[in-house]
Design goal:
β6 and β7 form a beta hairpin. The longest helix has 29 residues. By secondary structure, the chain is of the alpha+beta class. It has a single domain, classed as Alpha-D-Glucose-1,6-Bisphosphate, Chain A, domain 4 (2-Layer Sandwich), CATH 3.30.530.20. The protein is elongated. It has 6 helices and 8 strands; from the N terminus they run αβααββββαββααβ. The protein has an 8-stranded antiparallel beta sheet.
């Protein structure tokens, strides 16, 4: 057997894997510590449909089931401090509750995570709609997040593009309205 025990190889391999994993976890934590707690990402597109058509979709939370495929069900739950609160459920039964902070038809919608203390992340999404001629609308989505835990902050940046949410919202909205446009990061 060439002088080495099979058990020694397994022990050495296990130690290397464990050490590598620990280094990776410490690296993610260290990376998260250098990232700002609060971050903002925006993107915009021009959709070839009028502002009222865009608002009809964005302004009605019940339509989120129609244009956001990850949402399987949605319903309004008990208002909080006079503001609407909605609950989305996905196919796995995971829920996402959000508050409608601001609704200014047909120009602006602001949604916010309803219970950030439960998930360790606070965030809001602002949708701004501006007419660009009679049959086009510029839509800008801005995501503002705050992740207090440095490990989760680092992990979120390592595992996904920070513009993912805002770009996906614009892509899905454009596809639903059959009016896709080129997306520009801001």
């Amino acid at each position: 057997m060439g002088g080495s025990e099979p058990g020694a190889w397994i022990a050495t391999s296990s130690a290397l894997v464990t050490t590598s994993l620990m280094i990776a976890l410490v690296g993610v934590y260290a990376y998260g510590r250098i990232l700002p707690v609060e971050q903002q990402f925006s993107a915009r597109t021009v959709l070839s449909t009028d502002i009222d058509a865009v608002w009809a979709v964005l302004g009605d939370p019940q339509l989120r089931v129609a244009w956001r495929p990850a949402v399987e069900r949605i319903g309004q739950i008990e208002d909080r401090d006079g503001l609407e609160v909605w609950r989305e459920l996905d196919a796995d039964g995971d829920r996402f509750d959000f508050v409608v902070l601001e609704r200014v038809p047909p120009r602006r919608l602001v949604l916010q995570i309803a219970s950030p203390e439960q998930i360790g992340v606070s965030g809001s999404w602002t949708y701004e709609i501006v007419p660009v001629g009679p049959a086009s609308a510029e839509v800008t989505v801005t995501e503002q997040t705050a992740i207090d835990n440095p490990f989760w902050r680092g992990l979120s940046r390592v595992t996904r593009d920070p513009f993912h949410t805002v770009e996906t919202e614009l892509e899905l909205l454009g596809a639903y309205l059959d009016a896709p446009g080129e997306i520009q990061r801001l």
